[in-house]
Amino acid sequence: MPNQKILYITTEMYPYQEDTNMAAVVNKMALKMHNEGNDVRVFMPRFGQISERKFQLHEVIRLSGMNIIINDLDQPLIIKVASLPGERLQVYFIDNEEYFKRKQYYVDDEGNPFDDNDERAIFFARGVIETIKKLNWVPDVIHLNGWMSSFVPIYLKTYYESDTYFKDAKIVLSLYNEKDADLDKNIAEKLTFDNISGLKALENPTIKNFVIESMNYVDMVVKGDEFLDEDLDKGFNETSTPKSEYVDVDSINQLY
């Protein structure tokens, strides 16, 4: 079914990340949908490991310049864009000096999770939402991949609930076996600042618990990895949201 507007929000995508199932799957899904005549956009964080020179990223001045307030602090939003190497598919990168310049993804060199992983996820989610609105491009399908993207539906159904911009978009969440980690205990205060409260994940804020929580805020949950770890599999089996077992990339358009 061509001529759909499909938004992929992801934390990983080949070739910007290599050797992970998520990065490969997102690349294949986005390219397949693009080559079938759909209007596809991809959004991801501009992690410090992604070479701007190698992948020819450049700042989109007309989209940059917004500030996102997190926990009462103004954080500048910088938007960069590149074409997927060898393809005419645009990938947008959410950037901010404070949150995404470091070379590691979620843990430091000693393996300790970054204290501000929660703020980075909030910034990424709100940054994507605000940028899409500024693009004046309304997606038909929003497909979420990676734990940071799980904050997007939570924000859409709470903070942005009265905003009709995304009201007709269907949200698909893919589940992957990602490394779990604790999130800052003060995340409840930061979300309360955005009038978000009452989340079960706040009782024990971890990466995995927010992914499980986000299943309640989407239209479809699908296994991104064929076999999920015990907690994710339990969340998948217990959610009342419509769900699908692992779907081969060649059949992804049937899901949409």
Describe how the helices and strands are arranged.
Blueprint: E1 5-10, H1 21-35, E2 39-45, H2 52-55, E3 58-59, E4 66-70, E5 73-83, E6 90-95, H3 97-100, H4 117-135, E7 141-145, H5 151-156, E8 170-175, H6 187-193, H7 207-214, E9 220-223, H8 230-238, E10 243-244, H9 252-255
Could you describe the 3D structure shown?
Residues 5-220 form the Starch synthase catalytic domain. GO terms for molecular function: alpha-1,4-glucan glucosyltransferase (ADP-glucose donor) activity. With 256 residues, the chain is α/β, with parallel strands linked by helices. It has a single domain, classed as Rossmann fold (3-Layer(aba) Sandwich). Helices cover 30% and strands 21% of the residues. It contains 9 helices and 10 strands. It has helices at residues 21-35, 52-55, 97-100, 117-135, 151-156, 187-193, 207-214, 230-238, 252-255, and strands spanning 5-10, 39-45, 58-59, 66-70, 73-83, 90-95, 141-145, 170-175, 220-223, 243-244. Strands 1, 2, 3, 4, 5, 6, 7, 8, 9 and 10 form a 10-stranded mixed sheet that branches. The longest helix has 19 residues, at 117-135. The radius of gyration is 17 Å and the shape is globular. The chain starts with a strand and ends with a helix. The mean pLDDT is 95.
